[in-house]
Amino acid sequence: MTHILILFFATFSAAFMATVPPGLLNMNAAKTSVEKGKLNGVIFSFGVSSMIMAQAYVAVMISKFLYRNPEVIDLLLKIALGVFAFFAVYFFITAKRKKAEKIKVARPSKKNSFFKGMGLAAVNLLTIPYYSGLNAMWNEAGWIKFELNDTITFVLAAGMGTFSVLYLYTFYFNKLETKTNRFSKNSNYILSALMLILLIITLIRILYR
To answer: What's the whole-model pTM score?
Structure first.
């Protein structure tokens, strides 16, 4: 039982710390909250966390394989490179178009917010290598074994750690009422810049592996 508690705390902390720096997921959680309201921000966060748990489960299942075949991680990084390049351009073009458009008031779709969260989390291909690495480290430390209880604990902790940060982003940005318009207007530029930074970091990791 003790190792389950250690496993949960360690994985929760790792997921929390990985989500705290401004990035694609937390900035979109804040953006959704600003543009569509708190509830949609929370639903978006649930969508992200659901996909993170699925990715964490996949990471547990393939961690041994990744450890023995490091070229798989290289392939994932190359795919991530293309994804980040696409989104850097996409968010920049969206921001340009948004300047010229009038603000439209529409009834937000909660279902769309959930699946948008899942979709954005799914394209973040660095998540699986990250949790595979954690799984390997925890396994060496004796905190996790390839048993059902350990796998469930690892997956739930990853999802809850991610959701807790997204929840804070959702409500923190929503409370800045005097700055919401400004944030909504510039958020796509911020996201485009973040994608460019992630692209550069990923490229550096590929070159120096």
So the answer is: 0.67
